[in-house]
Amino acid sequence: MPDETKPTVQLYTDGACSGNPGPGGWGFILRHPTSGKEIERAGAEANTTNNRMELMAVIEGLSLLSRPSVVELYSDSQYVLKGLKEWLHSWKRRGWKTADKKPVKNVELWKKLDELAQEHELHMHWIRGHAGHPENERADELAVEARESLVSSDHS
Questions:
Q1: Catalytic residue from among 54, 60, 72, 135
Q2: Does the annotation count 154 as an active-site position?
Q3: Does 140 participate in catalysis according to the annotation?
Q4: How far apart are CA 88 and CA 2, in angstroms?
């Protein structure tokens, strides 16, 4: 049951990368369903991976929340959702090592995401990417636009 004392928000996230690694972008939509208020943000990095951009979208979205909230997180990234639901606890227990004792990739982003997730009640929802889900399509559009503006500014 969601905590009635906390506001509920919806967070739709996506990342995009051209080449892996290569230039990438992230985008999110943060919606407060009762007020109808909605915030869209995006950003880009010159040399990154798709997984890093997926993580950044969630981190940046959660960073905007000014108080503990119930967050309905919608993502097409199994990496992010499985990381939060299944892998994070074990990684921390093993000192940020994977099951085969290798360092966790993107550990600084996972640590930041873990810190942010502790403040909120996360409910995670996987949605198929590029399947016509309006908010996922918009988050993807934001991520791609951010990546493209970075790429075009590098060539101007």
A1: 54
A2: no
A3: yes
A4: 22
The pTM assigned to this predicted structure is 0.94
Known catalytic membership, residue 3: no
Q: How far is CA 86 from CA 2, 12, 79, 81, 114, in A?
A: 21, 20, 10, 8, 13
Q: What is the mean pLDDT of residues 75-86?
A: 97
Query: 38, 95, 140, 141: which is the annotated catalytic residue?
Result: 140
Q: How far apart are CA 119 and CA 144, in angstroms?
A: 29
Q: Which of 116 and 34 is assigned the larger pLDDT? A: 116
Residue type, 46: A
> Which of the given ranges, 40-49, 125-134, 146-155, has the highest pLDDT on average?
40-49
Q: Provide the b/e sequence for 28-51 (b: ≥16 CB within 10 Å).
A: bbbbeeeeeeeeebbbbbeebbbb
Please tell me the distance from the alpha carbon of residue 12 to that of residue 38, in angstroms, as a whole number. 11
Report the percentage of the chain scoring pLDDT > 90: 85
Residues 6+ apart with CB under 8 A from 23: 17, 44, 45, 46, 47, 48, 147, 150, 151, 154
Q: Which of 45, 60, 72, 76 is catalytic?
A: 76
SS3 28: strand
